[in-house]
């Protein structure tokens, strides 16, 4: 079972006498959670994400409970001697998949992100947007327990941005954790999660929810056997209200609605979807 990833008293500086970029960082990332990291340029957001991803080691403090982690960096190195499909297949085997499973996952993610037509294109010849899609695909193909996204939506077209949002919902619904930085404050703003701000080398918890009040949301009404609890995956991505015994209204960001429905319909208990409709008016 995946453990909580913890940073205790973590600090990071570059060079023996360099200034501290981060210091005294205490953070727990629990399975099934979504965490947004904010801060001004140069505040240390990317350094924090690199520590979480295991790319950098702390100068002081401890990191414990390391899960299987995948990382989308702010800048993806495109000049690698692979085609898109070969690179993803290779990364899949590094993550522990068989070569056949890795090739299958590579094809699926290239298709989902709208870059399947470039599967045989060398990475060095891909456009910036297509390279970014490959960078996202390499992080998702092995279903990581922790997904770390540093400006991962930058450079993606609208369809690919929506697909990445759905992938984030899938990871959290299945019990994985996602930590992300994005320049757009509306990104995943209606999703359930926590927001932290990096300021003056320290980490401050800002809010329990990412939310802005006016994002598009969907209400899913479901009926199940009285006394049965909703699937944990549904509760990770949706706010639930019990209308009567066995009957619930689940409110979820519109981008997550298909993930919620799939979670409900594949649960061990048979949950009957009564209705699906857009939420009207303010929450």
From TrEMBL:
Q: Which GO terms describe its molecular function?
A: ATP binding
- In terms of superkingdom, the source organism counts as Bacteria
- Which UniProt keywords are present, listed alphabetically? ATP-binding, Nucleotide-binding, Transport
Indicate the segments forming the ABC transporter domain, all copies.
5-225
Query: Could you confirm whether the keyword Endoplasmic reticulum appears in this record?
Result: no
Matching Gene3D superfamilies: P-loop containing nucleotide triphosphate hydrolases
One of this protein's Pfam families, by short name?
A: ABC_tran
PANTHER family given for it?
A: ABC TRANSPORTER ATP-BINDING PROTEIN ALBC-RELATED (PTHR42939)
* Stated name of the protein: ATP-binding cassette domain-containing protein
